[in-house]
Amino acid sequence: MSRALSVYTVLRVARVVGPTLTDAITGRGGRANQDRRLREFGRAVVDRARIQLTVRGADEVPRDRAFVYMSNHQSHIDIPVLYASVPSETLRMVAKTELFRVPLFGRAMRIGNMIEVDRSDRASAVESLRRASALIADGVSVWIAPEGSRSRTGELGPLKKGGFYLARDTVTPIVPVAISGTYAVLPPGTIDMVRDVPVEVVFGPPIPVEGRRIEELMDEVGAFFAANVQPRGEIRR
Hints:
globular; alpha/beta; Glycerol-3-phosphate (1)-acyltransferase
């Protein structure tokens, strides 16, 4: 296990945060620069950790429109892995409000159009979904983990409805994403990362949402996770 690798990951985050804040001050940059930095961050972490990344189904996801990506959530490492593998050029996250309270980091997240959700405040959560709707209307794909928080055991948790309402109300297809292996890269309760871990990301075909019931959509995404997320999130080869 490597604490130095975790420090490297934090420094790579800083290489996204610093230029984003500078762009805001100077009025330069823009979405394309943010997209590039996020992809570079994801690939750099995957490469440095020597993650044995396998991606399936990405070629079946069209690149010419916005989607609501929904994945299971095993680890903080889900984020760089997703940015290293997602087919859409522009992707922004729905993240818990606590992250936005971190000095500089939280400011950069707001500038970068990440979506803050305070699950303890229903009115705030509704407003967050409105902001996400505006991003989707502008062609930006949105990632949300419908379990709501990281798994502490590697097992799948129950799904929450908010992201499904976002997809249905904006008539935006859902792309289900099954992530396996990241639980072993950064196990819960430690800040030490593990190298050379096999990780698999499976993108499902877009799920149409128009005229569908929320429960029906939840069942379909849940079934995709159950079929494609490896037991305890581990890849066995």
